[in-house]
Amino acid sequence: MSREKTAQLGLAMCTALVVGNMIGSGVFLLPASLAPYGWNAIIGWLVTIAGGLCLAGVFAALSRRLPLEGGAYAYARAAFGPATAFMVAWSYWIATWVGNAGLAVATVSYLGVLAPGLQHPVAGALTACGLVWLLTFVNCMGVRSAGGVQLVTAILKVLPLAAVIVLAALVLGGGNAPPPPPLNLSDLTLPAIGASAALTLWALLGLESATIPAARVKDPSRTIPRATLLGTAIASVIYLAVCGAVILLMPAAETAGSPAPLADFVARYWPGAGADMARKVVAAFAVISALGAMNGWVMMQGEMPYAMAREGQFPGFLAKLSSRGVPVRAHILSSSLLTALILTNLSRSTGELFTFFILLATNANLVAYLASSAALLWLMAKRKMTGSVLLGIIGLLGGLYSIGALVGAGPEAGLWGLALLAVGGVWYAVNRALAARRVSEPSV
After folding, report:
1. What structural domains and CATH numbers belong to the chain?
2. Which of 49, 242, 257, 368 is at 20 to 30 A from 77, Cα to Cα?
C-alpha cells in the first residue's frame, strides 16, 4: 500500500491526538495534590510548561530530522543502540500501566460523588480494579470497539473544563472572588517547586504522541513538529487556567481534602439553586473523561509488550494475537500488574494513592524524555543531525528539566523507579544471553 494512501493524519488530527492524550484525569484530581503547595504550585506549573515546551521542541526537532515510527524508542535506538532503546521502551510501558492505576483512582474518586460508598478505600480499590478489567475486555474485543469509546469520551471531556473556566471568569469579573492566598517569597522553596513540577508533569504526559504514528501522518517532517508544539501549548493553557482557578479561589485545606475538587469548585460558585446537581453533573463528565483516557492507555499498555515481544525482547507468547487481531495475553499481563499495584496499596487514602501513582508514572516516563533530550544532543555533537545553537540549548534545557523533575518526584517514587528499571535491565541481560546461546547451539 502506498504512503499516500496510508498517511491520513493531518495537522488538525495530530494536534487533537496530542491534546486528547494529554487531557485526561490530571486536571480533575491534580488541584487536590497541589493545594498544599500554594503559590509553589503555580510556579511549578510555569516551570513544567516551560520544560514541557522544551521537550516538545526536542521531539519536534527529532521527528523532523528522523521521521521514524516509534517516537522516543526509535530516537534512543538511533543514538545509543538497542540496550538504551529497550530501557526506554521498558520505562514507557511501566509508565503506561502505572499511569492507568492513577487514572482508575481518579475515575473512582469522582464516582464517589455519585455513589458515596465508593469513598471507602477498599470499595474504591475494588471498583478501580473492576474498571480496569472492564476496559481490558473492551480492548480485547478489537480496535473498533475501543475506538468507538474513545471518540465519544473525547467529545465530552472538555465540557467540565469549560464549565470551570467560564465560572471562574464570571466570579472574577463579578468582583465576588475571595482574595487569593498571599504571595510571600519566604514561602517559595526549591523542594516545593520541584515537587509541584513533578506532579504537574503528569498532566503533560503524552506530548510526544504525534511522533509515534509517523507512518500514518501526512508530510510528517512538517506536521509532527507543529502538532507537537501546538498541542502542548493548548493543553498547557487549559490546565493552568483550570488548576489555577481551583487553587487560588478555594481554601487550600478544602481543596486538599476533596475527592472531586473540580466538582466542589463548581458547587461552591454555582449561582442560585442547583449547586448540588451541578456538582454531580461535573463529576459525571469527569468520570467520562477519565474513562476515555483509561481506554486509550489500556490499549497502549497491551500494544507495547506485544510490539516488544515481536522484536524478541519480551517472551514470545505475548506476540500471539487473538482471532480479532488483539494481543489479549499482553493485555492480561499489563492489567494484572496494574491490579496488583492497586491492591498492594490499600492503606493509602484516595489522594495519597493518586499522588503516588502519578509520581511513579511520571518518574518512569521521564526516562524516555531524558533519553530523547540526550539523543538530540548526542546526534548533534556527532554531526549526525544538524541544528542551531538554539536547538542545542532547548535540548539541554529539556534534559535539565527532566533531571529536576526526577529529583522533585521524591525518594519513594525514585526508589520504586530504580527498582523497576533494575528488573528491566536484568531481563534484558538474561534475554540477550539466552538468545546468544540459541545462536551458538548447533542445529540437530
Report:
1. 18-429 (1.20.1740.10)
2. 49
